[in-house]
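Hey L., structure's done. Input below.
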Amino acid sequence: MPGAMPGMDLGIQPPGLMAVSAPYATIMWDYISRGMPLGKEGSLMPDEVYSLTAFLLYKNDVIKSEDEVMDAQSLPKVQMPGREGVKPPPEWKHGTPRLQGYP
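Output:
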């Protein structure tokens, strides 16, 4: 989209891809914590990351109240819309290849 900031399609501007497709809200928290703000990646304090994550979840109708508190206890409990489409990895047994066809 002309004039849009790069990366905004992942959060605020529709469709808010990460907010509706990430299987777990903690993935969003990690992405923001490690990659934001641009140019000073990783400089946000944990409370700032929780606030930004909550804001994006609210703006994308994943959580319904802008007053909902996000912290280490509440964030993992958020039911993400993309969670149902994710299959757990196959069980791995010691001594076997981790991926089919991988030596």
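Residues 5-9 have pLDDT under 50 and may be disordered. The chain is about 30% helix and 0% strand.

-- N.
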